[in-house]
Write a structure and sequence with these properties.
Structural class of chain B: alpha/beta
Oligomer: heterotrimer
Strand order of the largest sheet of chain B: 1-9-8-7-6-2-3
Number of helices of chain C: 11
Order of helices and strands of chain B: EHEEHEEEHHEEEHHHHHHEEHHH
Largest interface: B-C, 44 and 43 residues
Radius of gyration of chain C: 20 Å
Radius of gyration of chain B: 22 Å
Structural class of chain C: alpha/beta
Largest sheet of chain B: 7 strands, mixed
Chains: A mainly alpha (49), B alpha/beta (345), C alpha/beta (315)
Helix content of chain B: 25-40%
Number of strands of chain C: 8
Chain lengths: 49, 345, 315
């Protein structure tokens, strides 16, 4: 629908996979940071016509 | 009142002049249909339209309108205070208002302008507007304005009526507000109404469908309310809001507060008697929980309650928009005539 | 297809006279061209008002939800698939229904026809494969198959998939159609182009909810947009609220949508809302080899778990 694909991640991490969890979090945060603040699909305060 | 002849090239220059003293609105083509929009500098209203999908209600009484603004930030001195939203009510002119839409303003006004209450949002918006009508030389097959108290050349509710005479326009000032607009545009060549009558009767003859209300007037509310035809009329209805939203005379709205962080607005949005939520009580009880009740409400309001309450005809101008847009072909002409012709005994 | 009506009337009258059903849901002649109105017949005399032609596009399965009577219903391919959905989702019992199946060659798209002429269409007379469109100053003959709705042009199930009576011999199912041409086009866009595309698409939405209410799948007692405790979606013309409504509604139809086109047909603003549900229909087809509403014995893919369900998106 027009959201940058890098903002959405799916992963399956078992509670025993602590290193995988850390890797996933690092990857997600770095990819989202690279994209910068989200401008799309953000509701703005209603304008006075 | 003045009658002015406007050559088509002078029309363009007049519009440019008016842009200095008015905010201009008019029909604009959007994909396959037309909508009333604010005209940008140098933009002309597009008169190649039959009728717009939404009426001028979308300008006078917009679908979403902010009424108040507030702050919840306690560092602000005026936090938790509802403040009137500041709006631009400087003079505005709407071009290309079809006579049905002009008439709708007269029908809608008593709801917003009563002795007891004044709806200032609607009134300010209405009062700042000069309505420049455009007579219908070529009405649609769904039009039935002539039997709904209006007509393709009706001036009611308008300030100026423009008549397209092919090579030029005849502008008939209906009010002093309208005369002021004509002067501001430097449209000042005197014209005559000699050829207008012919155009008018030709246009009226093109309207082939009609509604009758004499019997509705004489019958009691209960008789019509309890008649047996409602279930058949309502069966196909899917209870969407299309008919009420495209209708120039449907005026209902809902008030909502919308918060965003530490500030927010109180706004109103069009609402529709077709939606179950419209009448839902806080208790969960819904007095119009069934679709037949809601369909009956819409037609009773337009064709009976309004007629009885205001004594100025039905709350319908015969624009035919609901007929064209209804997804399941519920036709107000058919419903009105069923209500009128039914054998009440 | 116009020849079906005699058989439809004959079957309908028989069902009512034999008291096999309490009512029959069909169409009566519309008051304006190219749209007939859904109606109910409870007597043989009512049946005389029934019509059948290419202007019977409205999905009649929408009128079955939660009804208690014994009902006869006239069903095209898509209606029949939505009846299957209704049975699977317990919105109606199979035993209540007598399905009068109608093989279909597609239903007319009013906007397509209106776009062919510059003035108002006053009358449309349907012949076997053509339609004669006329107005105050014109008359034009068009091939019906050229003006049927987009979803009908790519329909793979024109014949009813479930029925008790069939009004005519089955029509040939279409082959070699590109079912997902418009979806492929959107999928090929980058995210910025998609954003602009949808922004333009929903600009004219007036939130009348005709798309939702015309959809046989949208029968929730309270739709999420109408919830007030909590209120999930704002009520104004805010574009994000409008998008939220359309996208979420589409997701609620995933694995259920038959691509009947009711949503598009109902939209007073000509928004192609069907594109959203069509994308999900495509995904269900490609990932689960699933087409909704084909059998009352199969559970939809979102109802069941299989070890081999595609999960390539989980990293």
């Amino acid at each position: 629908m027009g959201i940058e694909p890098g903002r959405i991640h799916f992963s399956w991490v078992s509670s025993a996979e602590s290193t995988k969890f850390v890797d996933v979090v690092k990857k997600v945060t770095s990819e989202v940071k690279a994209l910068g603040p989200n401008k799309r699909f953000v509701k703005k305060k209603a304008k006075v016509a | 009142m003045k009658v002015i002849k406007i050559d088509k090239q002078d029309f363009t220059s007049g519009i440019e002049k008016l842009a200095d003293s008015y905010r201009l609105f008019g029909p604009v083509k959007e994909k396959e249909s037309y909508a009333f929009q604010k005209l940008e500098k140098g933009q002309l209203p597009d008169f190649n339209f039959k009728n717009t999908r939404l009426s001028i209600k979308s300008v006078i009484n917009p679908q979403s309108e902010v009424m108040f603004e507030y702050s919840l930030d306690e560092k602000q001195t005026d936090h938790h205070v509802m403040k009137e939203a500041k709006k631009d009510y400087s003079p505005r002119a709407i071009f290309g208002v079809r006579p049905c839409d002009g008439k709708s303003m007269v029908l809608v006004k008593p709801n917003f302008d009563t002795l007891e209450y004044k709806d200032n949002y609607w009134l300010d918006s209405y009062n700042c507007t000069t309505f420049v009508g455009l007579a219908c030389n070529d009405p649609c097959s769904t039009c039935f304005c002539t039997s709904a108290g209006s007509g393709p050349f009706d001036e009611t509710g308008l300030d100026v009526l423009l008549i397209d005479m092919d090579d030029y326009y005849i502008a008939k000032a209906v009010t002093s507000k309208g005369e002021a607009l004509l002067s501001a545009a430097s449209w000042d060549t005197a014209g005559t109404l000699d050829d207008v009558e012919d155009k008018k009767s030709k246009a009226e003859k093109k309207i082939k469908t009609s509604v009758s209300i004499d019997n509705i007037k004489d019958r009691s509310i209960n008789e019509i309310h309890q008649a047996s035809f409602w279930e058949d009329i309502a069966f196909s209805c899917i209870n969407c809001g299309t008919c009420t939203y495209v209708c120039p005379t449907c005026w209902c709205f809902d008030i909502q507060d919308e918060n965003s962080g530490k500030s927010g607005v109180r706004m109103r949005n069009w609402d529709s008697c077709m939606f179950p939520l419209f009448t839902m009580h806080g208790t969960g009880h819904n007095p119009r929980g069934e679709k037949t009740q809601r369909v009956r409400q819409r037609f009773m309001h337009k064709l009976k309650y309004y007629l009885d309450k205001y004594d100025q005809g039905i709350q319908c101008v015969g624009c035919g928009r609901c007929i064209q847009s209804c997804p399941v072909n519920i036709d107000i002409r058919r419903v009105c005539n069923i209500m009128n012709d039914y054998n009440y005994e | 297809m116009i020849g079906y009506i005699d058989k439809i009337k004959e079957i309908s009258k028989g069902l009512l006279e034999e008291k096999k059903v309490d009512m029959i849901i069909g169409f009566r002649k519309g008051t304006v061209p190219m749209i007939n109105e859904p109606c109910v017949a409870k007597t043989s005399a009512d049946v005389d008002n029934f019509v059948w032609d290419s202007s019977c596009g409205i999905n009649l399965a929408n009128y079955l939800t939660g009804r208690k009577e014994k009902i006869g219903i006239i069903a095209k391919g898509c209606d029949s698939r939505n009846i299957v959905n209704h049975i699977i989702e317990n919105k109606i019992n199979r035993e209540q229904l007598t399905i009068i199946g109608v093989p279909c060659k597609g239903m007319v798209d009013r906007s397509k026809v209106k776009a062919l002429v510059s003035s108002d269409i006053e009358e449309v007379i349907e012949k076997e494969d053509t339609m004669v469109i006329s107005g105050a100053d014109f008359e034009k003959t068009v091939k019906t198959s050229d003006v049927i709705s987009k979803n009908c042009t790519i329909c793979m199930h024109r014949n009813p998939v479930i029925f008790d009576e069939l009004v005519a011999e089955e029509v040939d199912e279409q082959k070699d159609v590109n079912r997902y041409e418009d979806i492929d086009k959107i999928e090929a866009m980058d995210s910025g182009e998609k954003w602009n595309y949808f922004e333009d698409m929903f600009k004219s939405c007036i939130r009348c909810y005709a798309c939702r209410n015309a959809c046989p799948l949208c029968y929730c007692p309270t739709c999420f947009v109408d919830e007030s405790k909590p209120q999930w979606v704002g009520k104004s013309q805010d574009p994000i609220d409008i998008w939220t409504f359309h996208f979420l509604r589409a997701y609620h139809c995933a694995g259920r949508c038959t691509d009947c086109g009711a949503c598009v047909r109902a939209c007073p603003m000509d928004i192609d809302v069907r594109l959203l549900t069509k994308k999900l229909e495509k995904d269900c087809f490609e990932m689960f080899n699933w087409e909704a509403g084909l059998s009352i014995d199969k559970r939809p893919p979102l109802d069941v778990f299989n070890a081999d369900d595609p999960d390539g998106f989980i990293k």
